[in-house]
Structures are given as structure tokens and as C-alpha cells.
Fold this sequence. Notes:
Layout lengths: L7 H10 L9 H51 L6 H14 L5 H22 L26 E8 L6 E8 L7 H11 L16 E4 L5 E6 L9 H13 L5 E6 L2 E2 L1 E3 L3 E3 L1 E3 L8 E4 L8 E4 L7 H7 L9 E3 L7 E7 L2 E6 L9 H16 L4 E5 L5 E2 L2 E2 L4 E2 L9
Parallel strand pairs: 4-5, 14-15
Antiparallel strand pairs: 1-2, 3-4, 5-6, 5-9, 7-8, 10-11, 10-12, 13-14, 15-18, 16-17
Helix pairs in contact: 3-4
Amino acid sequence: xxxxxxxxxxxxxxxxxxxxxxxxxxxxxxxxxxxxxxxxxxxxxxxxxxxxxxxxxxxxxxxxxxxxxxxxxxxxxxxxxxxxxxxxxxxxxxxxxxxxxxxxxxxxxxxxxxxxxxxxxxxxxxxxxxxxxxxxxxxxxxxxxxxxxxxxxxxxxxxxxxxxxxxxxxxxxxxxxxxxxxxxxxxxxxxxxxxxxxxxxxxxxxxxxxxxxxxxxxxxxxxxxxxxxxxxxxxxxxxxxxxxxxxxxxxxxxxxxxxxxxxxxxxxxxxxxxxxxxxxxxxxxxxxxxxxxxxxxxxxxxxxxxxxxxxxxxxxxxxxxxxxxxxxxxxxxxxxxxxxxxxxxxxxxxxxxxxxxxxxxxxxxxxxxxxxxxxxxxxxxxxxxxxxxxxxxxxxxxxxxxxx
Length: 404
């Protein structure tokens, strides 16, 4: 091995002869320089990572486009519709693969397979998939000529928001009205209110029986009955119910003692049910799967003409809309005794449709609420709307919103 020309002492002498170098930076400046170098290095690493990610996205996009073209080519070579057998195979495969999964996941995947099979059938048969929503139509009124061998029971049921009371009527194959009250109580326990978009209100936690005569209903409460606190809604519901069932008065008792202490109405022993309530009528419908129902307003009006105009106005209540369209115009209203004549505007359009029928029936019930028994529409542009003959006097209906 070749030896160095200098020994250690000579190297030391040479280093001593070199000029002195001094670093004038303090400790903080030195550390800051080191931090800047490290930060620069990390920035370069981050930049390299972002570039790699962008490259991966570009490559994945190219692969997906290529795969999509292959699938598109396969579809163009064969049928564009999924067959029922292919759907069943897919569902069977999902069911087999679920055997090793938990119960909740297995049920979810099985339902997904069935849904795919249903969609496949719809596509193959070119049938539009069922949306799950079917619009129900207007529930017409019950008239006296329909009750020759039958009778009607009407229940006043709160809407789903507990804001208004909606009367609905059931025609029964019995003309004997002597047992009307008992049949009404029985109907309360049988009615499915939610089917019509109303609150699940009946049966009530009270005892309802005949009072001193057939025109009086006696209502017995328990001392802690919540209906005594919710008396506004309860009394409105009972008034609407009983008034259509030939009851003109309610008497009250609590635990066998005469009278009842209501939160808002105070202590009452009895309450008269007004025959004519001077209200307008509007339309209530919870959603498209429930029927359109006529509903009386919560406000009373001084005159018949005022109540008719109110039937055209938009309500502030949810799901309540005008029953009378703005283009149904009248020029004059004449009344004599229990008969009222509504002179319609000339050249007014009117169709024989459900919308026209619900508007005319709303007018008939407003007339009934003001004590009129017959209504005549003059200058009607058509002769009939539904079963209503507009060329004759029309007798007001017996009860609203017939349901089946």
C-alpha cells in the first residue's frame, strides 16, 4: 500500500497556516436554516405525491373508458333489455353469497335481489314502474234520495295535525234511526281514520248514551280524562258528529256526578248544539293517496254571500285549500225563506268534472249551514254536473264526504 507523503505533524502545521473562518450566525439563525431545508424537502415530497396521484387518476380513467366501450359493444351485439331469467340468476347469486353474512345484511341483500327482479320484469314488459302513489278522488256527499232503505252515520274526526274537524259519513243498510246513537258509538270503534288522512282519534275514553230523550246525548267522563284538558277539540268533534245524527244537546257527568270541569270551557252540565253554524267549506287532503274531503271552517260568517267568497280564499291551515275556484263567478244572490238562488255570471265556463262537483257541493253545504234547504243555480252553462241537475232546484245534501 502506498504511504502518504505527509506525516501527522506536517498536516497539523499546514492546517494552522490556513486563514481563520468564523460563522457570525447565532444559534436561532442556524436552526432556522436547517428548518427551511427540511421544509423545502417536505414540499418536494408532497409535490411528488400529488403528481403520482394525478397520474393514477388518469390511468384509471383510461381503463374505465375502455371497459365502458367493451360493455357498450356487448350490449349492441345482443338484446338491450334485461331478461327475467338473468335477474333471477342475479338474485339467486346474492342469496347464496349472503348465507355466510349476518341476519340483517342477509335480509337487506335478499330484498335488493327481489327489487332488481321486479325492475327487470317491468323493463322487459315495457311497463312503467309503480310509483307507490295513487291519487284518490273526491268523496261526494250523501243525499236524502239515497237513503230510502238506508241511513247515514257521520263522525267529526280531527285532521292529522289536530287543527280542524273533518266530517266523514258512512251509509248503512238500515233505515231504522231509533238506534242511531248506539250505531254511531259502534262506528267509532270500527273506523280507520288514518286511511282517510285523519288522526287516530276514536274510540274515545268516555261513555256515550242516550240522555233524557232521543235528541240528547249523555257523556260520562273519568275524573282524570285527558279529554277534559283537550276540550276545544273534543267539543268541536262531538258537535260535528252529533249534529248530523239528529242530536241537539249534550249533557255531561264525571264519575257519576253531574257536570264536567273543562280546561277552557269551564264547568258545564249541558251544551246546546247549534243547528246553523254559518261557516264556509274548504277542501282537506293529507296527500295524493287520501281522498279530497270537504271541511267546515273554524270561523263563522255574518252572511251567506260572505261565506261563499271565503270558500275561494286560501287557508293558513296546512293541507287545506279553497273548495270554490276563483273563476266560478256569480252576479247576484237572492233568498226567500229556506230557498236561495245563485245567479251565475253569463258565458262562464264549467265542466262536468269532479272539481266542478266539489265546488257545487261546497256551496250546497254553505247554504245548509245558513239554514237553506234548496239551492237554484241560474244561467248554468251546462245542465248536469255529476248527479246534480242544474236546471232544477237542488236539495241540500244530508251529510258530507261519503266513504266506503
